[in-house]
Design a protein that fits this description.
Length: 231
């Protein structure tokens, strides 16, 4: 006599762990299964999960970056600003940068049907702990390889702000002009008073940006974006 009884197999996804080596598909499946996790990234096939974020070394600098870029977006129809949005870059890399700017129509990146960024945004910003962080090593290489045109890193502990521009496959660091202001090469009118930002003077940062937004170069860029949208 043979007894048969159905066996129920409980299949569960393993949790994400720092250092896991995963494909992008497996990373997404595990990430989706852990709604309590607010930030996890896949960089060169390895999982990185954020520690709790401190206020003055990350939360406040991040807020300043978003205020600065938010003002630019508000005056520049045809671009979009993202805050901690997941970016599907390639088969081994799915970062979640602190901020990104992308051109909505005719830009490098697009938004998928399931509402993720696919491809490289034109500009990415990361708030980093120091020069020894992931942001200035593996992430920089990944962003460079995937053609992120401008990569900005605020090294809070070092008291520095790096603005890289992609030139012939390599990142070059943009220097402030004689007034201490750095100008974007991709987003006309987007400018930053570096010293004011590092000093925590958000009012001056936004005042200087307003001057960039009033420039003829920014107006021409807005008109160009409007033409792309209508075509």
């Amino acid at each position: 006599m043979t007894l048969s009884s159905p066996m129920t197999l409980l299949v569960t996804l393993p949790p994400l762990e720092n250092g896991d080596k995963l494909t992008r598909g497996e990373f997404e499946r595990r990430y989706h299964a852990m709604p309590a996790v607010k930030k996890a990234e896949l960089i060169e096939g390895i999982v990185y999960m954020a520690s709790p974020l401190r206020f003055r070394s990350h939360g406040k600098p991040h807020a300043y970056v978003m205020a600065w870029l938010g003002l630019y977006e508000s005056a520049t129809p045809g671009i979009e600003l993202g805050d901690n949005a997941t970016v599907r870059l390639d088969a081994d890399n799915e970062p979640q940068p602190d901020a990104c700017l992308l051109i909505t129509h005719g830009g490098q990146a697009s938004v998928s049907d399931d509402d993720y960024i696919e491809g490289a945004p034109e500009l990415i910003v990361e708030v980093a702990a120091s020069s020894v962080s992931l942001d200035l090593h593996d992430k920089l290489k990944v962003y460079r390889r995937n053609q992120v045109q401008e990569y900005l890193v605020w090294r809070v502990y070092d008291g520095e702000f790096d603005w890289f521009k992609l030139e012939q496959g390599e990142y070059i660091k943009l220097a402030p002009n004689s007034d201490g202001v750095i100008y974007s090469r991709v987003f006309p009118g987007l400018c930053l008073d570096k010293a004011a930002l590092l000093a925590g003077n958000l009012a001056k940062v936004l005042t200087v940006l307003q001057q960039g937004l009033a420039s003829a170069e920014h107006q021409s860029f807005v008109e160009k974006l409007a033409t792309k949208h209508s075509s």
